[in-house]
Amino acid sequence: MFILTKVLGALLMPLSLVLLAGLLGAALLFTRRVRLGRRVVLGTLLALYLLGLEATAGLLLAPLERQYPALLEPQAQVAEPVSHIVVLGEGHRLDPRLPVTAQLNTSAAARLLEGVRLQRAFPDATLVLGGGAAFGETPNSAVMHRLLRAVGLDPGAVVRLETPRNTVEEARAVAERVGGAGSERVVLVTEASHMPRAVALFRGQGLDPIPAPTHHRVREREAGAGPRFRDFLPSAEGLRMSERACHEYLGLAWAWLRGWTG
What is the C-alpha to C-alpha distance for residues 241 and 256, in angstroms, rounded to an integer? Predict the structure, then answer.
């Protein structure tokens, strides 16, 4: 089921669907349905252009990223005791030729730094690193811990969750660990667009986490900054943002269908 969801998720991403539609349209050009083939090809080009615009991607991502505010002043925003700071895993790619700083995915590194920042604001809390070995042998949590040690940010009290492969498994593992934490709360750190799904899955396990979103992709411009010519051109970053939004909407729908959300 884990592999199946990954494969289906990849096939249902906008770029995959657009490419498949484009191939279908190109094939129709060599049949009697030439006019339909032209329309399909033009439609795929238009869809690719729109999905590659950061403005379009921002419209898709903003409802996800802005559901929960960032913890800019953690001690002022969180009144109750914090027992654990949970940093969800995101992925890595091991390459012995590269430093550990280049082996974590960008989102994973941002989540980890935010977890360290919050752990310093709540020094009595235990830092929990999530992320198992989804496709290789090395857990993502081990790579994150390795990075902490390499740059001298290891807070000492670190728990690594090395078996969960996805967010629902991480939520179950955290619930098993902190189920008897009493009135103390868990701070949940993950990418801003992933936070709505993560909170829903943690609530489905009986937890009520304090959201601490990071790695926001939709960001306001500085005051006085006007439109730029490149704003009207598609980009790889725009496509990544659009795919990220679709990934999370599909994930929310799947979690709801499986009855995992609370």
Answer: 23
Whether residue 229 has pLDDT greater than 80: no
Instruction: Read off φ and ψ for residue 33, nearest 5 degrees.
Output: -95, 50
Question: Whole domain around residue 101: which residue ranges?
Answer: 73-214
pLDDT digits (tens, 9 = 90+) for 149-205: 999 887 777 899 988 889 999 999 999 988 755 556 899 999 999 999 999 999 999
Q: State the total domains in the chain.
A: 2
pLDDT tens digits for 94-111?
888 999 999 999 999 999
Cα separations in angstroms, 171 against 69, 143, 236:
21, 20, 32
Q: Which residue has the tokens 């990544």?
A: 240
Q: Is residue 222 situated within a structural domain?
A: no
Question: Which pLDDT band holds residue 219 (cuts at 50, 70, 90)?
Answer: confident
Whether residues 192 and 130 share a domain: the answer is yes
CA distances from 176 to 145, 170, 207, 260 (A): 21, 10, 10, 16
Residues 49 and 158 in one domain: no
| 226: in domain | no
Annotate 42-80 with b (16+ C-beta within 10 A) or e (fewer).
eebeebbeebbbbebbbebbbebbeebebbeebeeebee
Rounded CA-CA distance 30/38 in Å is 11
| Beta pairing partners, 190 | 213
Residue 174 inside a domain? The answer is yes
